[in-house]
């Protein structure tokens, strides 16, 4: 037999071979094992412990490698198996060698584990109970308790049977805790710990009540006196198992522990243990021992014990926070928990402590003892650490704790008295918001919501931190998944499920973010209501405005985020079923914007309406608030609609009436909006039904009006038009009181704007509209500055008769003022300049609308003419501007318009003349008529410039044109005030030296001379009576032209020449102007015959004027060149009438030949200029010898033939025709082919030079002076 066989040699031969078997050991190889020998070896006291230990080790190996063979061996006789187990159990009591005892424990546990189905473990427990019932020392019982602990831990179902069926044995376990031996206590506590762990969640509930209560009391005593680390660990583990049950917690928390026997030097947990135990002994008897023990664990250096302590605290508080929180707080557990937060980075410990503190915050004593104030810094520091961990449950729980503290903190106790504390917590919250986990970010947003409370703001308020927090939350919105359900259904099943989960979390985050923004808006409103909080007292005053750390900056940030981030995100969620909570928050936020930044709200309100928010709010109310559902959403929608409507109403143009009207509308909206819970499609029927009161109908009209003004058509135009008409009819038929003015104004606007897509009103309905408008005393209060209103009123003759003139007057009164035109460069060609002005200066939209109205309704023209003649000056000026645009625009009916205007203008001038004669100038009706005279004359000028009559018309004294000009001149010449003013202006520039500083402005001087020149000409034509003459110094004018032309403005030179031209045409004798002269012109008296014939110009004056004009003809200034040629024509005519020889002598002087030479040398373009052609004609006409056929005239003809007739403008063609006609009549041509060439040119010029094609009908603006170009056209025969 091998020495390793498990046999007892002395007795083996007596044993039946059936109890022997050769087994395979764990180390390999076959070993003989005899059960009987093993039993006798264990029972023999003389057997060495080493032999027994070896045998037990071998049996343990067999159980691992050949368990089935052993199972068959033991099955032969159940009694042998029980005897073997009994023997081993006895060895636990008798064996001294600890190694052998350990092997016995191991083999027992293995046997029961392998044969738990065949061997009843009740037998084992009964044997253990017998051992414990014996009077054995505690030291002898230690192996038994260790075996029990291992048995319960290893073998299934033992724990449950143990607890439910072995009450006496449980009592022995409780009694064992009274032994002073800590090793024994450690083993016993281990047994209890395994029983609680292995019996399942309800294990402690099966314990007898007395046993459970006794265990709780003994555990506290054991725990309080424990000094070994293992015992403390086991006690903590058992405590964690017990506190899961409310009944056990009740016993544990009600026990004060009695007198505690503990030596300071036995504490291995912490150096603070002596003081801790001293504190425990000083506690009153009504204080619980358990919180003190839990503090003991928190003070330990073992992290697992700290976690267990925190878990125990949480478990205790969960059962009854109201009952146990106060005890824990009085024991100062919150302070210890906060201390652990500050020094730990363990995920489990942080989560556990957070959970404990969350439960403790439910007790007001937590805050009254200032634990939140003392612990907030540790909490913020731990949150920053928690966010670095991989397990995100810890930071989530941490932000929950921060949220609870911020929400429950009493307003009177500030958490952040200094700015640094608030900055730290806001930085932590921002870090949480930026977490990759959306659930953590959502909890951080909840904390931010609580942080946005006025009582949490430091002094000064950290506005920059608030703004950064809002922006951090808003920055998460783009990554939110807010897809519609249809989009999710289009994905696969798995992907759709993931998307649904992400969408759910995203919407949860969105809702919490909106609640947070709502709190931020509320905080901004509260800060705005307290002047001391609006500005940072430590910021320089000059930096307050627009500073980053200011309330205004926060408000702008809120509006910016609302506009660009929050609204689009919420609208994305509306693709699917809308959320009442999300919409409630959004509408509340929008309401706040109207309070925070009222100056920016007009533009924001318009954007909201144009984005369809009227429609959204109304539909959301109908969908979610009908049947009194979602009672919080309805007032939020109503508040938003009211503020939006009132903002739009305040900025309406023109304003919607007095403050009483605004209050009336606000009350109307406030009372009616809550009851309005129908869809937009139901509005037409609601407007058409008879209701009392009508507030809801009036509310609908106002909302339709305000939305339509911003371009949002809530209903089809035809539905709006017909509904408003029916409403007006219903109001009148029911005999209701007059509609509120704002409602009637809105109704009129709706009718006007929707008329194009609606049928015309019949007689009855038109009558209802007319009566409704008549019910308002002031039509101006119903007016809206919209072109549709013009067309609506003028569309129906009945309305046009009553309100046509009023609406036109209001339109013109509200018309935008046009700026003055820029000065035009005076050296640009007149015709091209005029055409460019016509192209570039488009009429404003208001004028264009009036022009369109006149084209559609010709009667508008008559009304406008009445306004020009009899209206107020400002309105008349606006009408004049409209007519000016119409006339200068050369529309197709401009000629017809001028034909209609002239009789009206003649009538106006006649009335002014009659009033002046009847009442005297400036008296009664004459004064009123005189006020309209400037406008009438301006319109007359426009008419003449737009459609200049042919000269033949003026010869008909019965014609309108003749009478019109006659009365115009008569009115002007009879106006003494005008003549006095003209005299003052002319006299201010009568000195021969340069104009003094007191001289009238240049534009006024030019206009005065031009007006006098026109009056001289017209008076000569119409022989009008002159009441007062103007004295004008002829010698001063000639002297200025002769000596100072280089220092005189070109436009002033033009006006002087134009006046001289008119006087020369009248032979220097006009009742309008009384000329004064001097020796410098006529020489000394007595006058020479030449001077007398030319008086008051004189021969010297004529010579000076000829020299001046020759010099001016060398200039390239267009107006000056034209005026100089015309003035030369008049001068030569004057000389010919007074002294023909002198006229011929004048054109034969050397200056004429030099002038022609210079112009011929300037190129073909200058050669074909109308002024030069007219100059050559004049020289030929008066017999000048300076113009020769060759080379002068032949050069002109060659140039014309080379460039072509078509290249000449109308005026140049007329001048050329006049020149060729003069050549034929006065120049002897040397050859017949020359005559033929002249004749062909004349024939080719024939069709292009009709009077109609050559008329100049433009007005040129040079600075502040308007020139009628027909007055500066070149005079041709």
UniProtKB/TrEMBL annotation:
<dbReference type="GO" id="GO:0007127">
    <property type="term" value="P:meiosis I"/>
</dbReference>
<feature type="compositionally biased region" description="Polar residues">
    <location>
        <begin position="821"/>
        <end position="832"/>
    </location>
</feature>
<protein>
    <recommendedName>
        <fullName>Meiosis inhibitor protein 1</fullName>
    </recommendedName>
</protein>
<dbReference type="InterPro" id="IPR016024">
    <property type="entry name" value="ARM-type_fold"/>
</dbReference>
<dbReference type="InterPro" id="IPR052133">
    <property type="entry name" value="Immune_Signaling-Apoptosis_Reg"/>
</dbReference>
<feature type="region of interest" description="Disordered">
    <location>
        <begin position="821"/>
        <end position="846"/>
    </location>
</feature>
<dbReference type="InterPro" id="IPR011989">
    <property type="entry name" value="ARM-like"/>
</dbReference>
């Amino acid at each position: 037999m091998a020495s390793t066989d498990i046999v007892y040699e002395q007795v083996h031969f007596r044993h039946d071979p059936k109890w022997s078997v050769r087994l395979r050991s764990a180390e390999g190889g076959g070993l003989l094992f005899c059960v009987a020998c093993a039993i006798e070896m264990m029972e023999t006291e003389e057997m060495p412990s080493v032999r027994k230990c070896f045998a037990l080790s071998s049996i343990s190996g067999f159980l691992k490698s050949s368990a089935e063979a052993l199972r068959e061996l033991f099955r032969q006789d159940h009694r042998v198996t029980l005897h073997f187990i009994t023997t081993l159990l006895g060895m636990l009591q008798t064996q001294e060698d600890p190694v052998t005892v350990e092997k016995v424990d191991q083999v027992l546990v293995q046997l029961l584990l392998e044969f738990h189905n065949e061997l009843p473990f009740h037998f084992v427990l009964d044997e253990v109970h017998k051992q414990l019932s014996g009077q054995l020392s505690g030291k002898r019982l230690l192996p038994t308790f260790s075996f029990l602990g291992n048995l319960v831990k290893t073998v299934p179902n033992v724990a449950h049977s143990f607890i439910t069926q072995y009450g006496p044995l449980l009592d022995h376990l409780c009694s064992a805790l009274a032994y002073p031996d800590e090793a024994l206590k450690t083993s016993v506590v281990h047994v209890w710990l395994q029983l609680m762990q292995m019996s399942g969640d309800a294990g402690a509930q099966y314990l007898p009540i007395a046993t459970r209560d006794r265990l709780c009391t003994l555990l506290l005593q054991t725990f309080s006196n424990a000094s070994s680390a293992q015992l403390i660990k086991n006690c903590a583990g058992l405590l964690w198992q017990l506190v899961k049950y409310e009944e056990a917690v009740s016993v544990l928390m009600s026990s004060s522990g009695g007198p505690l026997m503990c030596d300071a030097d036995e504490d291995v947990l912490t150096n603070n243990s002596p003081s801790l135990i001293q504190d425990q002994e000083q506690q009153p008897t009504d204080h619980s021992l358990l919180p003190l023990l839990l503090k003991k664990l928190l003070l330990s250096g073992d992290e697992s014990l700290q976690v267990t302590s925190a878990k125990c605290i949480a478990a205790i508080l969960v059962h009854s926070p109201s009952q146990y929180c106060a005890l824990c707080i009085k024991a100062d557990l919150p302070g210890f928990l906060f201390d652990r937060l500050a020094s730990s980075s363990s995920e489990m410990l942080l989560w556990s402590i957070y959970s404990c503190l969350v439960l403790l915050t439910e007790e007001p004593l937590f805050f009254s003892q200032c634990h939140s104030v003392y612990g907030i810094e540790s909490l913020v520091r731990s949150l920053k650490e928690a966010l670095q961990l991989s397990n995100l449950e810890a930071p989530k729980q941490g932000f929950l704790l921060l949220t609870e503290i911020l929400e429950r903190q009493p307003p009177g106790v500030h958490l952040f008295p200094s700015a640094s504390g608030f900055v730290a917590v806001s930085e932590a919250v921002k870090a949480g918001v930026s977490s990759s986990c959306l659930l953590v970010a959502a909890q951080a947003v909840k904390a931010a919501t609580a942080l946005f409370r006025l009582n949490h703001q430091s002094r000064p308020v950290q506005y920059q931190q608030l703004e950064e927090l809002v922006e951090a939350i808003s920055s998460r919105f783009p990554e939110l998944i807010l897809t519609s359900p249809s989009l999710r259904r289009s994905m696969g099943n798995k992907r759709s499920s993931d998307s649904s989960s992400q969408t759910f979390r995203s919407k949860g985050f969105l809702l919490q973010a909106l609640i947070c923004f709502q709190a931020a808006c509320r905080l901004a409103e509260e800060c705005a209501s307290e002047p001391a909080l609006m500005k940072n007292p430590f910021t320089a005053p000059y930096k307050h405005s627009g500073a980053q750390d200011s309330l205004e900056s926060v408000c702008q940030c809120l509006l910016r985020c609302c506009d660009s981030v929050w609204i689009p995100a919420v609208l994305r969620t509306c693709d699917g079923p809308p959320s009442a909570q999300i919409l409630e928050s959004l509408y509340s936020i929008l309401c706040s914007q109207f309070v925070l930044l009222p100056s920016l709200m007009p533009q924001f309100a318009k954007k909201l309406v144009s984005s369809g928010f009227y429609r959204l709010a109304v539909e959301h109310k109908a969908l979610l608030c009908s049947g009194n559902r979602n009672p919080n959403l309805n007032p939020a929608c109503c508040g938003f609609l009211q503020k939006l409507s009132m903002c739009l109403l305040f900025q309406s143009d023109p304003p919607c009436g007095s403050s009483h009207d605004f209050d009336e509308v606000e009350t109307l909206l406030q009372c009616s909006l809550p009851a309005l819970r129908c869809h937009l499609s139901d509005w037409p029927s609601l407007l058409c039904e008879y209701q009392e009161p009508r507030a809801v109908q009036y509310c609908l009209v106002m909302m339709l009006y305000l939305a339509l003004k911003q371009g949002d058509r809530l209903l089809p135009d035809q539905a709006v038009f017909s509904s408003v008409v029916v409403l007006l009819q219903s109001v009148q038929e029911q005999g209701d009181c007059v509609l509120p003015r704002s409602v009637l104004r809105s109704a009129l606007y709706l009718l006007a704007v929707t008329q194009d897509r609606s049928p015309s009103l019949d007689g009855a309905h038109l009558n209802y509209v007319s009566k409704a408008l008549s019910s308002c005393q002031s039509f101006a209060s119903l007016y809206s500055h919209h072109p549709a209103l013009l067309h609506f009123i003028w569309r129906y003759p009945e309305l046009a008769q009553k309100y046509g003139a009023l609406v036109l007057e209001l339109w013109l009164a509200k018309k935008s003022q046009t700026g003055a035109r820029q000065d035009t460069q005076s050296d640009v060609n007149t015709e091209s300049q005029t055409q460019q002005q016509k192209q570039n200066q488009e009429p404003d939209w208001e004028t264009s609308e009036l022009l369109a109205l006149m084209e559609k309704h010709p009667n508008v023209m008559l009304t406008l003419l009445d306004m020009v003649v009899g209206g107020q000056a400002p309105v008349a000026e606006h009408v004049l501007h409209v007519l000016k645009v119409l006339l200068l625009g050369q529309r197709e009916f401009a000629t017809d318009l001028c034909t209609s205007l002239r009789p009206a203008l003649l009538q106006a001038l006649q009335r002014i003349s009659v009033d002046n004669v009847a009442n005297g100038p400036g008296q009664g009706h004459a004064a009123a008529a005189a006020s309209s005279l400037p406008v009438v004359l301006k319109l007359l000028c426009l008419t003449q410039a737009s459609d200049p009559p042919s000269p033949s018309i003026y010869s008909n004294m019965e014609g309108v044109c003749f009478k019109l000009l006659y009365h115009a001149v008569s009115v002007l010449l009879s106006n003494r005030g005008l003549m006095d003013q003209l005299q003052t202006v002319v006299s201010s520039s009568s000195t021969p030296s340069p104009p003094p500083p007191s001289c009238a402005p240049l534009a006024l001087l030019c206009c005065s001379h031009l007006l006098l020149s026109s009056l001289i000409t017209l008076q000569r034509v119409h022989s009008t009576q002159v009441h007062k003459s103007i004295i004008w110094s002829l010698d001063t004018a000639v002297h200025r032209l002769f000596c100072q032309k280089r220092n005189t403005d070109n436009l002033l030179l033009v006006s002087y020449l134009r006046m001289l031209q008119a006087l020369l045409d009248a032979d220097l004798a006009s009742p309008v102007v009384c000329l004064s002269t001097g020796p410098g012109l006529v020489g000394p008296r007595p006058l020479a015959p030449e001077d007398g014939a030319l008086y008051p110009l004189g021969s010297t004056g004529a010579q000076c004027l000829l020299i001046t004009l020759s010099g001016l003809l060398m200039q390239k200034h267009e107006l000056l060149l034209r005026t100089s040629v015309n003035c030369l024509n008049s001068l030569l005519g004057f000389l010919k009438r007074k002294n023909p020889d002198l006229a011929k002598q004048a054109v034969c002087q050397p200056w004429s030949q030099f002038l022609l030479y210079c112009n011929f040398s300037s190129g073909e373009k200058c050669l074909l200029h109308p002024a030069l052609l007219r100059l050559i004609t004049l020289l030929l006409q008066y017999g000048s010898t300076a113009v020769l056929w060759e080379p002068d005239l032949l050069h002109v003809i060659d140039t014309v033939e080379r460039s072509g007739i078509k290249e000449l403008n109308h005026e140049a063609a007329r001048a050329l025709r006049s020149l060729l006609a003069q050549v034929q009549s006065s120049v002897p041509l040397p050859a017949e082919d020359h005559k033929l060439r002249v004749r062909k040119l004349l024939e080719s010029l024939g069709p292009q030079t009709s009077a109609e094609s050559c008329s100049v009908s433009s007005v040129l603006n040079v600075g502040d002076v308007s020139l009628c170009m027909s007055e500066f056209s070149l005079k041709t025969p």
